Every structure is written in C-alpha cells, then in structure tokens.
C-alpha cells in the first residue's frame, strides 16, 4: 500500500509534463532545475515506477506517467468540487439542518420560522423529527441532531442553551369543570379527585411532575399516560385533567374549550422551554442563520 503521495512532487511532475523539459518547468516555477530533478527522482522512488525517459531534447512520459497524470487531474477536480461545495455552504445554497422538537412546538416552529426559512434557502435540506425531551437531548449530544427545541430539559454540561423562556406548568381542564369555580386556591390534593392524564416519563413535563411528587411525598395515579400532547388535549376535552404548559396546546382550544388553571407551587412555575445545541459543536452558516431567525421570530421566546 502506497504512503501518502507528496503533492509538491506531483505538481513538479505535471509542470515537467506540460513544459516538456525540466528546465522549462524550473523557469516557470522559478526554482532550480536541480530541485525539480531531485523531486522527480524521489517521486519515482516513492511510486516505484519510471515516469520519464530522458532524451537529448527533453523528457518523454512513460505509460506510468499517464496514470499519475489522471490522478493529478482527479485531485484537482476533487479540490475544485470541495471548494465549490464549501462556497455553497457559506452562501447557504447547500447543506442540511436536523432539528429535534417536542410535538407541541411543531406548529410555532413551522409557522414562525421554518416555512419562511425554507423559502429563503430552498436548496437547504431541513429534517424535523418529533421526539420527547430526553431523546432530543441525547441526539443533540451525539450529533444526530443539530438543534433541539424542548420543554424543561435538565441541565447538562454538554448542552449549550441558545434561548430559554419561562413556561410554567398549568392544570388544564375542560370548560365547566368543577375546579374552575372553586373558591380557594387549587392545591395538588385537589387533582386526586379527578381522572388525570400525564405525559410519558421521558418528557420534560413528566420529570417535573415526578419532582413534585417526591417533594410533596404524594403519588399521582394517572388513568392515561401518553407521549402525545394531542392525545392529552382530547382527554381534557373529554373531561379529564392534565398537567401541561399552555404553550403546548392548540391556541384555538385554549381560547374556548380548555381552561388553564394555576397551581401555586414553585416546582410548577419554574420550568422553561429551551432552544439548544451541543456545547462546543462548530455550527454551519445555515444553522447560525436559523438560530438568529428563531431568536427574533419564534413566538415561544417572545
């Protein structure tokens, strides 16, 4: 197996081939003819072939020289292609962006940012995958996703939070539910008297509820557990209760059919929504531009 080929020697070889003489190549490159002679000899030793027949009026390429010439041309073509691709990436005419997002945040992400962004940069490939919070974090850390948009992810040294906003958890109930007209503040114990739905354990909401249970030394008993906000919305409309951040639900539902009730507890008021990337990961121009647009346009953070 050949070692890595010295590219300077290949360039000298090409000049000799193009000029027909070592002296002509030396004059064109502004180096001593002896330097080119020595480098050609080293290249022939490196490749274990003879590249030129030395004659009185110059040099004549051998059959092996034709093979090396093809290699030289392919290298140049590959370099030109690489430079062209990088230029396109810098101009955001090429590349991909992979985003992991909680299901609930797909509508604002699409409406506020991605629809316009994809029209501005139609040659970029954008991949959006709906995942739970812990899955998004894992895939961002493992470089399977460039960007994560998730509810209440735990602090992690491998994650850099680009944007964050407070999004307290509320108790969502159907319009007309008895808890709406309760004269005193709602407490956690009140929830136990009604059918409860919860997000799956790997979601940001569920992890907050687990912390609440441990702090208050209680055990909630949901009759429905799901990884889908849509399922919980339908469960609420059917008369059940669910813990969610209001921003997770369809605004049309919140405007009439569903009421968000506040439970005065610091654990429920602390959660945040985060837009994040892996700590230390180099980001392409396209990803940086998308993050900037999210900062100004994404309603979840404004």
Q: Can you describe this structure?
A:
There is one protein chain. By secondary structure, the chain is an alpha/beta fold. It folds into three domains: about 5-90, Winged helix-like DNA-binding domain superfamily/Winged helix DNA-binding domain (Arc Repressor Mutant, subunit A), CATH 1.10.10; about 95-165 and about 275-300, Periplasmic binding protein-like II (D-Maltodextrin-Binding Protein, domain 2, 3-Layer(aba) Sandwich); about 170-270, D-Maltodextrin-Binding Protein, domain 2, CATH 3.40.190.290. It is about 45% helix and about 20% strand. It has twelve helices and twelve strands. It has helices at about 5-20, 20-30, 35-45, 65-90, 105-120, 135-140, 190, 205-215, 230-235, 250-255, 265-270, 285-295; strands at about 50-55, 60, 95-100, 125-130, 145-150, 160-165, 170-175, 195-200, 225, 240-245, 260, 270-280. The strands form three sheets. It has a five-stranded mixed sheet, with helices on both faces. A five-stranded mixed sheet has the order 9-8-10-7-11, with helices on both faces. A two-stranded antiparallel ribbon has the order 1-2. α5 (about 105-120) links the parallel β3 and β4 (about 125-130). The chain is rod-shaped and about 110 Å long. One of its GO terms (molecular function) is DNA binding.
Provide keyphrases for this structure.
302 residues, alpha/beta, D-Maltodextrin-Binding Protein, domain 2, five-stranded mixed beta sheet, 12 helices, 12 strands, rod-shaped, DNA-binding transcription factor activity, LysR_subst-bd, DNA binding
């Amino acid at each position: 197996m050949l070692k890595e080929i010295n590219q300077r020697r290949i360039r000298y070889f090409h000049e000799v081939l193009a000029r027909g003489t070592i002296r002509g190549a030396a004059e064109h490159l502004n180096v001593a003819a002896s330097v080119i002679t020595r480098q050609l000899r080293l290249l022939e030793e490196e490749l274990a072939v003879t590249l030129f027949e030395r004659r009185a009026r110059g040099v004549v390429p051998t059959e092996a020289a034709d093979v090396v010439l093809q290699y030289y041309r392919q290298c140049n073509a590959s370099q030109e292609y690489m430079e062209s691709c990088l230029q396109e990436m810098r101009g955001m005419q090429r590349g991909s962006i992979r985003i992991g997002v909680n299901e609930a945040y797909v509508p604002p992400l699409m409406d506020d940012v991605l629809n316009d962004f994809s029209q501005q940069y139609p040659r970029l490939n954008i991949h959006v995958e709906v995942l739970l919070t812990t899955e998004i974090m894992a895939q961002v850390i493992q470089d399977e996703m460039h960007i994560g948009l998730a509810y209440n992810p735990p602090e992690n040294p491998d994650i850099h939070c680009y944007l964050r906003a407070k999004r307290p958890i509320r108790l969502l109930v159907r319009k007309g539910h008895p808890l709406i007209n309760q004269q005193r503040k709602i407490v956690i114990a009140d929830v136990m008297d009604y059918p409860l739905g919860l997000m799956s354990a790997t979601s940001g909401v569920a992890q907050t509820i687990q912390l609440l249970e441990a702090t208050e030394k209680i055990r909630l008993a949901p009759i429905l557990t799901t990884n889908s906000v849509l399922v919980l919305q339908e469960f609420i409309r059917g008369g059940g209760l669910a813990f969610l951040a209001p921003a997770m639900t369809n605004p049309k539902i919140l405007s009439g059919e569903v009421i968000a009730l506040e439970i005065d507890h610091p654990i429920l008021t602390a959660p945040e929504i985060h837009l994040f990337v892996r700590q230390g990961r180099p980001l392409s121009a396209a990803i940086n531009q998308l993050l900037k647009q999210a900062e100004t346009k994404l309603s979840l953070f404004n």
